[in-house]
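From the methods appendix. Each design record in this collection lists the tokenized structure first, followed by the designed amino acid sequence. Records were kept in a plain field format so they could be parsed without special tools. The example shown here is representative of the layout used throughout.

RECORD:
FOLD TOKENS (193 positions):
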């Protein structure tokens, strides 16, 4: 029988979110939009995708786990609430997408918004997800007082949170590589610029 590993997913999310936001803040508009020849996505695409995925994750957990209750927030994405697809000119057929499974051709044509608007969406998505995890951890620090159905759902939620955490790390690596191709400096040499 396997035992459950202890982890502080809230700390890990806050840490990777801070690294991503600080990294993005160091970029100018040109660096955000630059793509190497033959490559379909920019750093801006990766930031948009991270914001969409965090926004989506919180919402889908709430939709699929109504037992959590209303104090966990509205089960509606910021993307939809603020009409960001329309505001930024995304193709209407992509309103529900989070950027996963897009062809390279479609990904390369997405209208990445200005940096400040993109960063506002990223911060908002990250903040909402962190608040959700904080409430989840405080309310369900153990599974002692929950029925079996909710216990299984909570285990799935916690697993999905860890999967999304590694997802953010992978995209951070892609963005660092794209910046390194532009500047000649990767994250390990950043302080020598």
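DESIGN:
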């Amino acid at each position: 029988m396997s035992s459950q590993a202890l982890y502080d997913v809230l700390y890990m999310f806050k840490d990777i979110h801070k690294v991503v936001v600080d990294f993005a803040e160091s970029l100018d508009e040109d660096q955000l939009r630059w793509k190497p020849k033959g490559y379909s996505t920019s750093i801006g695409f990766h930031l948009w995708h991270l914001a969409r995925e965090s926004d989506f994750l919180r919402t889908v957990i709430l939709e699929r786990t109504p037992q959590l209750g209303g104090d966990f927030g509205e089960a509606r994405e910021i993307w939809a609430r603020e009409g960001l697809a329309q505001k930024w000119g995304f193709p209407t057929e992509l309103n529900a997408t989070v950027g996963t499974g897009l062809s390279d051709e479609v990904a390369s044509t997405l209208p990445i918004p200005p940096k400040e608007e993109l960063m506002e969406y990223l911060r908002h998505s990250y903040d909402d997800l962190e608040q959700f995890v904080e409430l989840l951890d405080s309310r369900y620090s153990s599974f002692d007082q929950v029925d079996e159905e909710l216990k299984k759902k909570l285990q799935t939620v916690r697993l999905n949170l860890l999967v999304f955490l590694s997802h953010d790390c992978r995209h951070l690596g892609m963005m660092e590589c794209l910046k390194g191709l532009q500047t000649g400096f990767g994250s390990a040499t950043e302080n020598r610029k």
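APPENDIX NOTE: The mean pLDDT is 87.
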